[in-house]
Design brief:
The complex is a heterodimer of chains A (427) and B (332).
Chain A: H1 2-20, E1 24-30, H2 37-58, E2 66-72, H3 77-87, H4 100-113, E3 117-118, E4 136-137, H5 143-157, E5 166-172, H6 175-178, H7 181-191, E6 194-200, H8 208-217, E7 221-225, H9 229-241, E8 248-250, H10 257-260, E9 271-274, H11 282-292, H12 307-330, H13 337-345, E10 348-349, H14 351-356, E11 366-367, E12 380-385, E13 390-393, H15 402-419
Parallel strand pairs in A: 1-2, 3-4, 5-6, 5-7, 7-8, 8-9
Antiparallel strand pairs in A: 9-12, 10-11, 12-13
Helix pairs in contact in A: 2-11, 2-12, 3-4, 8-9, 12-13
Chain B: H1 3-36, H2 43-58, H3 65-72, H4 85-106, H5 116-138, H6 155-161, H7 176-198, H8 200-210, H9 212-217, H10 222-248, H11 258-268, H12 273-299, H13 304-318
Helix pairs in contact in B: 1-7, 1-10, 1-11, 1-12, 2-4, 2-5, 2-10, 4-10, 7-8, 7-10, 8-10, 11-12, 11-13, 12-13
């Protein structure tokens, strides 16, 4: 009897302790080492620092502290899957895989495990179809939105017509780089511009043939889907042949400071897309004082305010808002991954809320639904100011052409559903 | 002359320039393989490490600052001074010599007499170790080499040659950096040949390359020669790292330039310095011409990487030791 009582007490103590120590577990599949570390480090710093700010300032979210579990992938797909497998048992609420390759591997695993994925502006574009991809979200924008936003920007620059213009896509010769081709072909047909493609083999250190061709053919615009060293070499090569930087537009993974600084002053005027606004925001000052200066920063503080730091912070904000929404829907603070999914699906980001969070217009206002996991798809065009060493927003948020991207997403999602025996529908 | 023909010549010129850069990487492999029979997988990482070290020294960066700050809670990042380029280059060479000595003392001295595959595996380990040390020592952000190397098009050449064709020909495009790289490569190869032919250490190096046992019997220290050879490979790696780093910034993908050297070695032979040069030029011109004439128009482009290996394999079929490699004779 005595033993039974002791056992019961021990059990109570254990569960009691667990309940008291409940945490919101957020894995961070970072890549701070290897060939892509220059991009992975600032994103991870921003992602973690925002959660650290919530812990320091608000005691977490809804009274529950956040615990970040960082796992280094080195931007390697196998390592990314290992990170997922080794951290999912800790009660992970949402994964931000930070790589299209890792995302493709995690879609079936996370779906089977019932853990949401947030692939913000990367991964499988058709995951925007929430009825087929119940557990995958790619708001606020995807690659096909990006292609459409670029063309809409160019339409605006050319008085609404691109008839007869020559537009070349310089792309990383991978699944990622080929993502916008179908969209750009559809847009070329719609707007009457001549579209051509130029592939660059991984990793992209050698681009002589591609830029000699650009020099010979002199397209009106060059769009770039680049990554890693390909971006730095492309910007330098554009400068070498004297290609006008205001006619050269990279996507949002080709528009960070480290993509342009190696080319120095010659990169001045280079344009790129961004899914979020950059620049000074009140929340950055809070993160500096309450996190970085307090010695709780994920990095050494040198990345605060950079393009990818802000994107990481923005991703963390979207996750934190979804957690708060899930807590509100289910009336509990200690949420499960399934509740997190509900929170993500009910997310409503308004301009007023972003203002309240100290990051006015950091992203476009958008809402998520069971059918639409992709957000509004809006993006801005930013310009590199080499003298000041900053990207400056050149436009307001530009909307994509949903009449082009919508059918492509529906078609690809239907093919995925058929291949995987999925009956589309809301959960 | 037609524009197509002139652009074809432009492609060949740029292929030759690209080939020089490939040859710069391949040279380091040849030096070590010739003297010790080791295929040094870490040569690409050595180029990265040398370039990182050069930039770090020039900028007065505190090595291992992240580690020091994490352990001791300090905020050290820079010494507060900048080192002139020539002194930084000299100090980087010293670092590469120390690295060569450490490799010899702590890795290969313990592997004497082992199978070549064991030595090769050791260099793979060395590559990962060196990449990690480079990251810890200098950080992972992309750095700019401020050596004042010229960038951009050689305008004078463009202006002079633009009259050769009609309105659709804009003159030959050649990067100024490539011209400098070609000149530096010429000086480097000449210096290596002079060193090998006319100095005592150079002759000893050649003796070791020809026959280890015979060299030992006449009193040549194998340890010294191997440190010397790894040091020379370190200097070559520094030159390659600077030239490639000037194109893209000094970043960790620099280590992948080793992949561009492999077909050059297969073609030129693992034991010949002229082979590395000629091999580099053939690969550079071959891949660019193929992309211009067939790859781009008919195969969707981006053929340079695989075509280089195809070309090298083709040579291997007819001449397994490469164009200039020593003939393989197995006596039973």
């Amino acid at each position: 009897m005595k033993l039974k009582t002791l056992g019961a007490l021990a059990l109570t103590a254990t569960f009691g302790a667990t309940a008291a120590m409940a945490e919101l577990v957020i894995p961070d599949l970072s890549y701070r080492t290897g060939a892509y570390a220059a991009g992975g480090t600032p994103f991870s710093d921003g992602y973690q620092d925002y959660f650290n700010l919530l812990n320091a300032r608000d005691g977490g979210i809804g009274g529950e502290p956040i615990r970040i579990v960082e796992c280094e992938t080195g931007y390697n797909t196998e390592a990314g899957v290992e990170c997922y497998e080794s951290t999912k048992g800790e009660g992970a609420l949402v994964y931000q895989p930070l790589s299209t390759g890792i995302t493709y591997q995690l879609i079936p695993r996370a779906t089977a495990d019932g853990i949401p994925l947030h692939t913000m502006g990367y991964g499988r574009t058709s995951a925007a179809d929430g009825e087929t991809f119940n557990w995958v979200f790619n708001y606020p924008a995807n690659y096909w939105d990006a292609a459409s936003v670029m063309i809409n920007y160019l339409l605006d620059q050319n008085g609404g017509s691109l008839e007869g213009k020559n537009i070349t896509l310089l792309f990383h010769n991978s699944a990622y780089g080929k993502e916008p081709i179908a969209t750009l072909n559809a847009l070329a047909e719609m707007h009457g511009f001549n579209f051509s493609e130029l592939a660059v083999d991984h990793p992209g250190q050698e681009q002589t043939a591609q830029w000699l061709q650009i020099r010979r053919e002199r397209p009106d615009y060059v769009l770039m889907w680049g990554w890693g060293v390909m971006n730095q070499v492309a910007v330098q090569e554009a400068a070498n042949i004297g290609y006008p930087m205001d006619q050269f537009i990279g996507n949002w993974w080709a528009g960070a400071e480290h993509d342009v600084t190696p080319a120095g002053a010659a990169a001045d005027g280079y344009l790129s897309l961004n899914m979020n606004r950059v620049g000074d925001m009140p929340v950055l000052a809070e993160m500096q004082s309450m996190v970085v200066d307090a010695g709780m920063g994920a990095g050494d503080g040198s990345n605060v305010g950079s393009v990818l730091y802000i994107r990481g912070m923005y991703a963390a904000m979207l996750a934190a808002e979804a957690i708060a929404k899930a807590q509100e829907i289910h009336g509990v603070s200690d949420i499960t991954p399934a509740m997190m999914r509900d929170g993500m699906e009910a997310l409503d980001i308004t301009e007023a809320r972003m203002e309240e969070l100290g990051m006015p217009l950091v992203g476009p206002a958008f809402s998520v639904s069971c059918q639409d996991h992709g957000g509004s798809g809006l993006g801005i065009v930013q310009r590199w100011d080499a003298a000041a060493g900053v990207f400056v927003a050149l436009t307001d948020y530009i909307a994509p052409d949903d009449s082009v991207t919508g059918p492509l997403i529906a078609e690809d999602a239907a093919a995925f559903a058929a291949e995987n025996n999925i009956t589309p529908g809301c959960m | 002359m037609s524009s197509e023909f002139l652009y074809g010549i432009e492609v060949i010129i740029n292929g030759l320039m690209a080939g020089v850069l490939y040859a710069l990487v391949a040279l380091g492999f040849v030096l070590i393989y010739k003297a010790s029979g080791i295929f040094n997988y870490s040569q690409g990482v050595m180029a990265l490490f040398a370039a990182l070290t050069l930039v770090g020294i020039m900028e007065g960066q505190v090595p291992f600052s992240h580690l020091i700050n994490a352990i001791f809670g300090t905020e050290l990042h820079h010494f507060g001074w900048e080192v002139p380029a020539f002194l930084a280059i000299a100090l980087t060479v010293v670092v590469m010599v120390i690295f060569a000595w450490l490799v010899q003392r702590f890795v290969f001295r313990h592997l004497v007499g082992q199978e070549p595959i064991i030595l090769f595996m050791a260099t793979i380990g060395l590559a990962y170790f060196l990449e990690g040390v480079g990251d810890l020592m200098w950080g992972s952000e992309i750095k700019t080499i401020a050596l004042g190397l010229p960038q951009g098009n050689a305008r004078w050449l463009e202006d002079v040659t633009s009259a050769l064709g009609d309105d659709t020909f804009y003159g030959f495009f050649v990067r100024q950096l490539d011209i400098v790289a070609a000149l530096v490569a010429m000086v480097l190869v000449t210096a290596l040949i002079v060193f090998a032919q006319y100095t005592k250490q150079g002759r000893a190096m050649r003796a070791v390359a020809d026959d280890h046992q015979a060299a030992l019997s006449v009193g040549i220290s194998l340890n010294f020669i191997w440190v010397l050879v790894w040091s020379l490979a370190g200097v070559v790696a520094l030159v390659a790292g600077v030239m490639w780093g000037a194109k893209s910034g000094v970043q960790f993908s620099l280590s992948l330039i080793a992949l561009k050297a492999l077909p050059v070695l297969m073609l030129g032979g693992f034991t010949s310095i002229p082979g590395a040069i000629i091999g580099g030029l053939i690969i550079g011109v071959g891949e660019q011409l193929f992309e211009y004439t067939i790859g781009g128009p008919f195969l969707g482009g981006a053929t340079e990487n695989w075509f280089a290996y195809m070309l090298a394999l083709l040579f291997l079929v007819f001449r397994p030791q490469g164009l200039f490699g020593e003939k393989i004779i197995e006596r039973v």
